[in-house]
Design a protein that fits this description.
The protein is of the alpha+beta class. The relative contact order is 0.12.
């Protein structure tokens, strides 16, 4: 029986953690040494979207649950809600060693992938290099730079889950149970179900491969025992995410991820989820674009990289020599290095050395792992092709369960970025065990010749593409010739770069196999080469800004003028209203920035609101502005329209319906299609459109003296006072959401009707009344309690499994 020793059992892992810590600190050195933060666009938008919720929490200690600042109001589940999962958060803080968010996610990715490689039998010092390759891949760094913190956090914990599952199937069931439970709970807490979906592919294929192996060995009962242990592990982890999952699942039905009520009976394809155009158009990899895994600038690099910014570039020289400043200024926007099919892109680089090791791993790894990881890698690439391989991907979108809930299909490359370092390190581990032989070297020549050969051909030739996007063919020939040459130069430079990294690494590997250098030197050189190879590319996509001590946004003169109005209203920013959240930082906006807005609200924008906006702009230009014509803007309580930062860039709307109003007439319709068509044409201030097939339409008597006023407003609680001489229908400029809102009149619960396609309405009896809306969704009120209980049970189970494993270490290693 072997006892735990410091040198063999503790020191390697201590060195690994120190190495990961140093790499994290130096890679993100401006964060640690220059008081800077990552310039993350999506996080800036989140700051605007969530400000009302964060202010409410700071003021009251409660959760707002409803986001009033964007899209006229929507559930806050995917915006900003804090759940009672404290123990799970504590585990993440411990695992990240307290490093600042979000760079801590990269450190966590290192640690989790290191644990994964250890669980598969890769020696610690080799596992360090594999972990760095995974954590520093440009996929994770680009995602972090964009502000996709939840996505990168979810990816960081994927290896920990897979490590736990593999440990369970490898006979270390108690440890595997604990690691799987912890990893799954941490992964789910990040709340990025698209990454969970891709993880499901990895786990399912692993399970199929292991099932075949166990059946061949006559050990089917052992397989069943492992599955029986993993099921409660997943269920316990899911309990820590129960409230969030309930809320997201419930909301998804009513968001643009859910079914459309406007879909015709004839055309029912993709009645639920995102349509093909939204999912694929301008977001699919070209057939050869996954080659960026080995040569990052094979398609010119990032679409945000303008070649004109380089005074040594051919396009810069051509524009200067043109002598036409106006034309040069216009053409400057066409100088992006990227020439692939996507509208916005940045290359996902796995590392030239990792690509070489991956091909080598196909030859040297255990065939069971090859049959697991190679098909997954192919699937990953095929999924990213999107509509460039429509026969497969349209089938996936139409028929594969849940696949049509997700966009950005290039995110599927996370699968191959997970598999490549694992298969590569497994192959390298086996190669080092085999040692030097003629057969070994002959076998090694294939992956070396393939990867070096591709790099060399591309470096010498400059590639064989057209180097222009479709719309660039119409540009002046002198300009496109310069553009082609610059893009070829980018390809050549990175092809040579990858060639030399693979070449130098192969020399180091050859020296190790010949015993010219020993293991410690080889491991150190391998880790350094892989780190330099990947980090130098990934650093291209990081931008920093001076860490702000106050608000993310500075109020424009137009904001300051509008903020003088202390009443309750909404603002319509004509400058990208539905693709920005800056307005939401200062005001309640009818626009916003979110990938899962309510479907009915999107329908309203696509039809009525878009048409009204075009008409309003035309009326402004002709000097015939008449706000009584804009019924949808008025019913959304748009009191101010802004079109710029200056104080004079404000158009007040005197015809806004206000926060609530009584109507004189109810227009009854019988379908959502009829409802939407009708609301585009009526005067919403006097007429309410109600779908009689869904709601009982009350009888009302018009009262010109009726009044209703908003007296109290909080995200989750609104209070009104009404006065009317006869029974009437009050319409509220608040978005109708069928789950969680409770209305009461003088303390008695009342039925909320949907009016005007997206708004709430109540039948109000004659007299003076107090009306209240309270948001008490069951996913939070009940689900949060289950989340809290599951989180504390997780703490007990994980600590128990680790304690049991530690006490029985000598028995397990004897």
């Amino acid at each position: 029986m072997r006892k735990i020793t410091f040198v063999k059992d503790i020191l390697p892992h201590l060195i690994a953690v120190i190495a990961f810590l140093l790499i994290t600190v130096f890679f993100f050195n401006p964060v640690f040494f220059d008081n800077k933060s990552l310039d993350q666009h999506d996080i800036q938008m989140w700051e605007g979207s969530s400000r009302a919720l964060r202010d409410f929490r700071d003021k009251t200690g409660e959760e707002g649950l409803w986001a009033p600042g964007m899209f006229s109001g929507m559930p806050a589940y995917l915006v900003n809600v804090e759940w009672s999962n404290g123990p799970v958060l504590a585990f993440k803080k411990i695992l990240s060693l307290g490093l600042p968010h979000p760079v801590a996610n990269i450190f966590i990715a290192f640690v989790c992938y290191y644990i994964l490689l250890l669980s598969f039998g890769v020696r610690p010092y080799l596992a360090i290099a594999g972990a760095v390759a995974f954590g520093l891949s440009s996929y994770l760094i680009i995602g972090l730079a964009a502000g996709h913190n939840a996505r990168i956090g979810a990816i960081a914990f994927m290896p920990l889950i897979m490590a736990g599952i593999h440990l369970t199937f490898s006979g270390k069931r108690v440890l595997g149970f604990g690691v799987t439970t912890l990893g799954m709970a941490l992964h789910l807490r990040e709340n990025h179900l698209q990454i969970t979906y891709y993880l499901m592919f990895i786990v399912i294929v692993y399970g199929i491969v292991r099932l075949i192996e166990f059946i061949r060995q006559g050990r089917a009962i052992e397989f069943a025992k492992s599955i029986a242990l993993l099921i409660p592990a997943v269920l316990l982890a899911a309990a820590t995410f129960f409230g969030q999952f309930w809320a997201i699942t419930e909301y998804s039905r009513y968001s643009i991820r859910g079914p459309s009520e406007l879909t015709s009976k004839v055309n029912t394809t993709a009645a639920a989820g995102l349509d093909k155009e939204y999912t694929f158009q301008g977001k699919s990899n070209g057939i050869w674009e996954p080659m960026t895994l080995m040569i990052p600038d094979i398609y010119g690099g990032s679409s945000m990289n303008l070649l004109v910014n380089d005074q040594g570039s051919n396009v810069y020289k051509a524009l200067v020599q043109s002598g036409n400043q106006e034309m040069a200024n216009q053409l400057a926007s066409y100088t992006s290095g990227y020439w692939g099919p996507q509208s916005l892109a940045a290359p996902y680089y796995a590392g030239a050395i990792i690509c070489f090791l991956f091909v080598m791993g196909i030859l040297y790894s255990n065939k069971m792992y090859v049959w697991w990881l190679l098909p997954l890698s192919i699937l990953s690439i095929v999924l990213t092709w999107g509509d460039n391989f429509s026969s497969f991907n349209y089938f996936m979108l139409d028929y594969f369960p849940g696949y049509n809930k997700f966009r950005s299909v290039t995110f599927a490359l996370v699968i191959i970025l997970f598999t490549m370092p694992l298969l590569g390190m497994l192959g390298l581990e086996n190669l080092l065990k085999k040692g030097w032989s003629k057969d070994t070297i002959k076998k090694l020549a294939w992956p070396l010749g393939l990867t070096l050969g591709v790099c060399l051909v591309l470096a010498v030739s400059g590639g064989f593409g057209g180097y222009l996007r479709d719309f660039e063919e119409q540009l002046p020939v002198w300009f496109t010739n310069a553009l082609r040459e610059d893009r070829k130069d980018l390809l050549r430079a990175d092809a040579w770069r990858s060639f030399w990294f693979i070449g130098i690494f192969s020399i180091v590997l050859y020296a190790r196999l010949k015993n010219w250098i020993k293991d410690p030197i080889f491991f150190l050189l391998a880790a350094i080469l892989i780190t330099f190879d990947i980090s130098f590319v990934s650093k291209r996509y990081l931008n920093y800004q001076r860490r702000k001590l106050q608000n993310t946004f500075t109020a424009y003169a137009s904001d300051q003028e509008i903020l003088k109005d202390k009443s309750y209203y909404r603002v319509y920013n004509l400058q990208g209203a539905f693709n920005e959240a800056r307005t939401s930082f200062f005001h309640n906006s009818i626009g916003g920035y979110h990938g899962a807005k309510l479907r009915r609200y999107q329908d309203l924008y696509d039809s009525c609101l878009f048409r009204e906006t075009q008409q309003m702009i035309s009326d402004v230009q002709s000097g015939k502005l008449d706000f009584t014509k804009y019924g949808v803007l008025n019913m959304l309580n748009v009191k101010y329209i802004v079109y710029g930062p200056d104080q004079g860039n404000i158009i007040p709307n005197p015809e806004s319906n206000g926060s609530a109003w009584f109507v004189n007439e109810i227009e009854k319709v019988s379908s959502p299609v009829e409802e939407l068509a009708k609301i585009c044409d009526v005067n919403t201030g006097t007429v309410a459109v109600v779908d009689g097939s869904k709601f009982d339409v009350p009888e009302i008597v018009p009262d010109s003296a009726a009044s209703i006023l908003l007296t109290e407003f909080q995200p989750n609680h609104l209070k009104y006072e009404s006065q009317t001489q006869s029974a009437g229908l009050a319409v509220f400029s608040e978005i109708f959401y069928p789950k969680g809102w409770i209305a009461s009149i003088d303390g008695q619960e009342a039925t909320i009707l949907r009016a005007d396609y997206v708004l709430r309405a109540l039948a109000i009896p004659a007299g003076k009344h107090t009306i209240e809306f309270k948001f008490k969704p069951k996913p939070y009120m009940i689900g949060n309690k289950i989340t809290m209980a599951g989180s504390w049970l997780l703490l007990i189970v994980v600590l128990g499994s680790l304690g049991w494993t530690f006490r029985n270490h000598e028995k397990e290693t004897s």
